[in-house]
Amino acid sequence: MKALVYDGVETLGFRDVPDPAPGAGEHLIRVAAVGICGSDMHAYLGHDARRPAPLILGHEAAGTIIGGSHDGMRVTINPLVSCLTCPACKAGRENLCPDRQIISMPPREGAFAQYVAMPMRNLVAIPDGVPMEKAALAEPLAVSWHAARLAIAALHPAMDRRAIVIGGGAIGLAAALALTAMDIADVTIVEPNAGRRAFLADQCGQVAVAAAAGTAPIVIDAVGFGATRATASAIAEPGGVIAHVGLGDDGPGLDIRRATLQEITFIGTYTYTAQDFKDTAAAIFDGWLGPLDWVEHRALSGGAKAFKDLRAGAVAAPKIVLDPWS
């Protein structure tokens, strides 16, 4: 099969690799659409030791099961494979499983390829009429759905239901959509890139500003750099909540003194539970998250150029989705 392989820092190769061999309980999936995630970019830049070269990246995917009793089923893929037996898994908190695996990290190759193998329990059927590229958004949307759910659950009921999201990429936009779907009516996205800010306003119907100009009870940091943590610390209202879903760096920025004195809740939020993923997929299929027509489509064969363009800040769309067959 053809695959886009991470070969080293800022180096990707499109070439033939062996087809995946499904294990017990797994299915072979013909990938139809796969998105580029911020974590793929971190690996591309050499900032993620968990993803050593050579490796097939990519974990936001949808496709069709090939062979077996479910041959032809259109599915979106939950890339997080958990053990099912640990206390976290039994409590429905699969994202905290100590033995969790995710495609695009060893030992599981990713979905920037024509085929990938996954357990049946990680697959959610796609209804007829839902495009594959829209279904492939279930993974990044589930990350934000989980973050929004945790933030709202931690918010005191007496506080206003307003939110500021830092970062207008796919996770930030998805967080704004999830918050809106969860009845947070007043949501503002902070995005310094003018082109992306215009895209968010014109194509996605979002309120997007260059810099935070006020405060909010809920702040979601969808970037995760020291500077954005400092901003989140400054704009979270007393008694409010910061949900930190970005993984930009591990530098300083969080104002622990203010968080303590103002009883601001800080939540580190990672991926999603299996139920979050199913709920997000259902929200996509039912149209709760809007048309989701804000992706840019490219061929997997041009994936290296897509990464370069993202690196250069030359992509206005919050998400690039690749087609392995074009």
TrEMBL record:
Cofactor: Zn(2+)
Alcohol dehydrogenase-like N-terminal domain segment(s): 23-128
Single GO MF annotation: (R,R)-butanediol dehydrogenase activity
One Pfam family, short name: ADH_N
Domain Alcohol dehydrogenase-like C-terminal: 170-282
UniProt keyword Magnesium present: no
Record keywords: Metal-binding, Oxidoreductase, Zinc
UniProt-listed InterPro entries: ADH-like_C, ADH-like_N, GroES-like_sf, NAD(P)-bd_dom_sf
GO cellular component: cytoplasm
Gene Ontology BP, a term: butanediol biosynthetic process
Similarity comment text for this entry: Belongs to the zinc-containing alcohol dehydrogenase family.
PANTHER family: (R,R)-BUTANEDIOL DEHYDROGENASE-RELATED, SORBITOL DEHYDROGENASE
Protein name: Alcohol dehydrogenase catalytic domain-containing protein
Source organism per UniProt: Yoonia rhodophyticola
